[in-house]
Amino acid sequence: MKKRLLINAIAICGILLTGCKKKNNNTSTGEPADPLDLGAAFNAAYYPKKEQNKVASIVEGSTEKMKIDVALNFEGTAEAWKELAKEYVRLCGGIVDVNIISELDTAGYTDRLRIEEANPKTDWDIVQGNLMYDLAGHCINLRTTINSTNPYASNKVWSDFLEEKAYITDVSGSTDFTYLLNTENLSTAWFVNTAATTAAGVANPNPQTWEQLIDMLEKLQVAGYKYPLGLTLTKDGINASQFSWLLRVYGDYYYRSQYKYTSKSFNALSKTDEKFEYDKTAENQEGSSGFTFSYNRALTLMLDDSSEYYCGANSAFYRDFLTQFKKLAKYIKPSAYQQSFIEVRSSFMAQKDGGGFEAPQVMLDYTGSGLSFLSSDALKGHLDFFDYPTIESAYVESGTLTRDVGGNGGYLAVLNCHNSRQTKLNKDFLQFVLSPYGQTIYYKALSERNLSPKGLTTVQNDLVVIPSEWVSFFQTDKITFTGLADNNKFIDIGVVNFFSSSKVDQKSVELWQKLLTTVDPITVDQFGNDWYYCLRTNWSTVASEHSWQEDSWSSAHFEDPNYIKD
C-alpha cells in the first residue's frame, strides 16, 4: 500500500511540476537591486554590484518569464535554500523565478531523479549529481564557468575564492572536468551518549577498533539499552545514506589491497608490478605514480571463482567482510528496515522512550549533526564522537588506513537538456549560491532557524560570515578526513553494487535487510551465494551496456589487461 501511495504522490508531483517553466507569461522587467547590508564582519570587496548583474541580458528575447528549478536532496536545509532563492530573485529585479522543489523525501528523491535524468523535457535544472546514474552523460561541464568572473563577488574570478575541492571532481588529475560543484566540506562521525556508556560501565566511549565498538554495544545492551546502535536499513539507507557509508568505507578498507593485482603493468607470472607500489597508508592511492586500473583484471577477481586471485561474493575474503557486519545485527532495531535516517536521528537526539532504553545510544551521522545534538536537552553535556574504527582481520593488513565518505558535499550539477539561455541562467544562479555573499545569506538562514549544516562551506571560510561556535565545532582533531573511500572502483564492481545496475541495487537492499534484521533472516553463507548468483546473472546486461565482451571476467584473459575496453 505504501509503495502505491508513493508512486501516486510522485505522479501527482510530476503533474504539478511538468511544463511549469514555460507557462508563466509574466514578463516583468524590474531593475537589479542593491545587495543587503551583511554587517561589518562581511568583506565589502565581495559584495555584488547591481550594474554587473547579467540576468537581464540572459533573459533578453525570452517571451515568457524564466524559472530555475532547484531539485536537491535537501535533508532539512530547504528553508535556507528558499532564502537563497528569494534573495537571488530580489537582486535580479524579479525578472526570473527560482522554484525550490523539496516535496520528496530522501528515498523518493533518488527514484524521481532517475526519472528526470532520462527525461529530455524535464523542468529540473539543478540537481544532486552524485546520485545520478550518468553524470557526465547528462550534465554540463562547468570547468570554463569556474574560471570566469563572478558577478556576485564584484566580478572577481570565481575559482580564486573557492577551495579547490569545490570544483575538482577527479583528484588524480587525469581529467579536468567539473560536473559537480561541492558546496560543503563534509565528514561523518560516530556519536555516542556518554551518560549511557557511563551507566553501562564502558571505560572507553571512543573505540579505536571494531571489536572495541562491539564490546561497547554489548555492555550497553546488557545494561538495558535494548538496541543501542542507530542504523537505518531502508532502501535509501543501504543505497545512498547512512548504512551505505559503512559499506563503502569498509568495502574500500578490505578491497584496496587488491590494487596489487589490477594494475595494467602487473605481471601475472611473477606476481610483481615494477611501476606501482601498493601503500596501505596512502590517502589517495589512485593518484599514486604508476597507478592504473584494469577492469578486466578486477572482474576476474570479483566474478571468476576458479581464479587464484578470486575474492568475490562467495569467497572467504568477502564472507569475512560480511561477518564483521553480522556482528552488529543484535544491536540494531529489528524494524530498522522501516526506520528512516531522519527518524533514527530524531530518536537519538530526543532519547525519550523508556528513559532512553528504547532509543539508540550510538549512531553514525554527518559531523555537522553534532551541532543539533549539542542543543538537545537529552544529550547536552553527554555527547562525544569518534572516527571509524579499524577492523582486525586476517584479510586486511594491520595498519591499513580507513578512508572516509564525504570530503565534499552538496554536489550541485546542471542538467544538460535545456536551451542555451536556460543553461546560462542556471550557471548564473550557481555563481550566486557559491559566492561569499550567497553563502553568508545561506548560513545566516540556517542559524536563524536552528538548522545545522553538514559541514562548512567550500567558499573560502574567511570570506563567509559563519557563527563562531560552528567554526570551532568543526575544528576538531577527533575526526580527520583521510581520503575518499569512493575512489575505490571495487565498491561498484561487486562489493556494494554492480555498475549502478538497478536490479542489483534492489537485490543488495534485500540481502542486507535479511542479514541484519528480522526480515526473513539469512546467514553469511546464504548472502554470499545469493550475491554471487545476482552478479553473474546480471553481468551480460552490464557487459552489453559497456560494449564489453561477455567473457571478460574469465581468468583466461587475466594476463591481457586490455581485453575489454578500460
Short summary of the structure?
This protein has helices at 2-17, 55-59, 78-91, 106-117, 135-138, 143-146, 194-199, 210-222, 235-239, 242-255, 259-262, 295-303, 316-326, 341-350, 370-374, 420-433, 436-448, 468-474, 502-516, 524-546, and strands at residues 66-71, 96-101, 126-128, 149-150, 156-157, 184-185, 188-193, 229-230, 362-366, 383-386, 412-414, 456-457.
Explained architecture:
The chain is of the alpha/beta class and about 575 residues long. The chain contains 20 helices and twelve strands. The strands form four sheets. The chain has a four-stranded mixed beta sheet. A hairpin with a 5-residue loop joins strand 4 and strand 5. Helix 3 (about 80-90) packs across helix 17, helix 13 crosses helix 20 (about 525-545) and helix 19 packs antiparallel against helix 20 (about 525-545). The longest helix has 23 residues, at about 525-545. The protein is globular and about 70 Å long. It starts with a helix and ends in a 20-residue tail after the last helix. Residues about 1-25 have low confidence and may be disordered.
What keyword list fits this structure?
four-stranded mixed β-sheet, alpha/beta, 20 helices, about 575 residues, globular, single chain, about 10% strand, disordered N terminus
Low-pLDDT runs? 1-27
Number of strands: 12
Number of alpha- plus pi-helical segments: 20
Termini gap:
44 Å
What is the 3D shape? globular
Give the biggest beta sheet. Answer: 4 strands, mixed
Radius of gyration: 25 Å
Strand order of the largest sheet: 2-1-3-11
- Sheet/helix structural class: alpha/beta
Strand content: 5-15%
Average pLDDT rating: 89
Percent of residues in helical segments?
25-40%
